[in-house]
């Protein structure tokens, strides 16, 4: 099992517990949010996901942070006009200047008194930046609950895969193995 790291690589920033930056963004879907089928456009949900993750990243890192990547965005159920959508976000993992933010999207159906349904999820990497847009160190996150600890460990696996994928693609391009002009 992977060890949890609760001090930064430079060891100079105190850790912050997951709960201090965890956030929920709630929004009622309107007719302007729909696609051709009349359900909510995926891009509307992705914007809310990015907004909620950005709020968490800013709160955790104590300053500006930019979206570096969004992956594994899953849409599990359609969202409808009138639904009350809750976007729940938390820091799953921190590196030197980057943070993985995990997001769950829940919908309370406007015409049903049933518990909220999970309609989506995503993982985003945010980089904390300084006033010149250059990466700056972030406080290490301190996972608190068993669930936080599991999410931390899973995020480390995704981080390893992202780095390996980027490295492999970079090497392939440098070898010039795939020819042809760009579209
Ligand atoms: C994200 C950004 C700040 C990274 O800058 P950089 O000069 O490449 O800096 P680094 O290579 O040191 O990366 C900084 C951190 O981000 C991570 N990172 C960078 N690109 C990433 C990507 N595509 N996916 C995941 N993580 C990424 C790095 O692993 C590093 O993490 P660490 O410090 O915890 O080890 C820069 O690419 C940027 O400004 N991008 C545009 C962001 C933006 O405008 N977003 C909104 C889109 S409209």
From TrEMBL:
According to the entry, every stretch annotated as the HotDog ACOT-type domain falls at: 19-132
Catalytic EC class:
hydrolase
Q: Name one Pfam family in it.
A: 4HBT
Matching entries from InterPro entries are given as: Cytosol_ACT (IPR040170), HOTDOG_ACOT (IPR033120), HotDog_dom_sf (IPR029069), Thioestr_dom (IPR006683)
| PROSITE patterns, alphabetized | HOTDOG_ACOT (PS51770)
Question: Per the record, which residues fall in region Disordered?
Answer: 1-20
Instruction: Give the EC number(s) listed in the UniProt record.
Output: 3.1.2.-
Could you list this entry's UniProt keywords, alphabetically sorted. Answer: Hydrolase
MF (Gene Ontology)? hydrolase activity
Q: Which domain of life is it from?
A: Bacteria
Q: Which family does it belong to?
A: Belongs to the acyl coenzyme A hydrolase family.
- For this entry, the protein name equals Acyl-CoA thioester hydrolase
């Amino acid at each position: 099992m992977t060890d949890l790291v609760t001090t930064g690589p430079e060891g100079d920033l105190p850790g912050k517990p997951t709960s201090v930056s965890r956030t929920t963004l709630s929004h009622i879907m309107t007719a302007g949010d729909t696609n051709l089928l009349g359900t909510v456009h995926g891009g509307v949900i992705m914007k809310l996901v990015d907004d909620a993750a950005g709020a968490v990243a800013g709160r955790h890192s104590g300053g500006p942070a930019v979206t570096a990547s969004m992956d594994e965005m899953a849409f599990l159920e359609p969202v409808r006009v009138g639904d009350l959508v809750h976007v729940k976000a938390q820091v799953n993992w921190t590196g030197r200047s980057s943070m993985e933010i995990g997001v769950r999207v829940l919908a309370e159906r406007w015409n049903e008194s049933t518990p909220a349904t999970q309609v989506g999820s995503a993982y985003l990497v945010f980089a904390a930046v300084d006033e010149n847009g250059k990466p700056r160190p972030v406080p290490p996150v301190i996972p608190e609950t068993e669930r936080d600890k599991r999410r931390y460990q899973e995020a480390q696996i995704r981080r390893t895969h992202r780095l390996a994928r980027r490295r492999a693609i970079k090497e392939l391009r440098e070898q010039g193995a795939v020819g042809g002009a760009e579209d």
